[in-house]
Amino acid sequence: NAGVTQTPKFQVLKTGQSMTLQCAQDMNHEYMSWYRQDPGMGLRLIHYSVGAGITDQGEVPNGYNVSRSTTEDFPLRLLSAAPSQTSVYFCASSRTDSGNTIYFGEGSWLTVV
Amino acid sequence: AQSVAQPEDQVNVAEGNPLTVKCTYSVSGNPYLFWYVQYPNRGLQFLLKYITGDNLVKGSYGFEAEFNKSQTSFHLKKPSALVSDSALYFCAVRDIGDDKIIFGKGTRLHILP
Predict the structure, then answer these.
(1) Cα of A98 vs its chain's centroid, Å
(2) Which of A93, A111, B15, B96 has the highest Cβ tally under 10 A?
(3) How does residue A100 score in pLDDT terms, banded at 50, 70 and 90?
(4) Which residue is closest to B7 within chain A, CA to CA?
(5) Which residues of A are less than 8 Å from B46 in CB distance?
(6) Residue A22 CB-density burial (10 A; 0-12 exposed, 13-18 middle, 19+ buried)
């Protein structure tokens, strides 16, 4: 029962460093997405994908890159970390049928100093 | 573009009393609507969803929600609150034919013993 797995769970970066948050799901879901959660801002969509080779921007895409080479994996890359990217990041997946439930990973806590 | 509003940052309810957490939405077409709950330092857990059919939807842990198309609302309710219901609640919407799922800012529910 792995579901949606995110790594790492905690990370501290220095301003300007790059890193990749990993996300994998074992439910054969076509749809995968990344959200960031900030106090008072709720969950904001960063990027999403409806299948391998297909990605699209969400509400707050700047400073982040994604790729989808396989159905299972959807990594999120921070190109040059900034303190404003300090947040909790959640990966989520679902079937592409719009009524399907979306399932979340446990989150990745990122601090940029 | 779809959007969700949760007008209350926090709701306080005495244990045993009924609770309501409000949600309104905006979509261009017909909506799929969801409620999720988040406990401290955890990911989001699915509570219930409205796809079509009966406007009153029943979900996990005794929660229910009523879809009101004329008021574009999807309020979460429970007849008798428990202290263990204290958590952060998110409403979300997916427009039919779209892939993105957009979340509200969340409402913190405090159940007072």
Answers:
(1) 19
(2) A93
(3) confident
(4) A40
(5) 101-103
(6) middle
Cβ pair A31:B99 closer than 8 A? yes
Mean pLDDT of the region A52-65: 95
Report yes or no: B40 at the A interface, CB cutoff 8 Å.
no
pLDDT digits (tens, 9 = 90+) for B64-74: 999 999 999 99
Contacts of A48 in chain B (CB under 8 A): 99-100
Residue B40: predicted pLDDT? 85
Q: In what order do the strands lie in the sheet with A4-7?
A: A4-7, A19-25, A76-78, A64-66
- Determine, for residues B101 and A45 on separate chains, whether the beta-carbon distance falls below 8 Å: yes
Q: Is B13's pLDDT higher than 70? A: yes
Q: Position of tokens 């439910």? A: A27
Neighbours of A74 (CB within 10 A): 29
Residue A99 and residue B99 in contact, taking contact as beta carbons nearer than 8 Å: no
Cβ neighbors of B103 (< 8 A, separation 6 or more) are A35, A42, A43, A44, A45, B4, B36, B90, B91, B92
Q: Which of B35, B37, B103, B108 would best serve as a mutation to test chain A binding (most A beta carbons within 10 A)?
A: B103
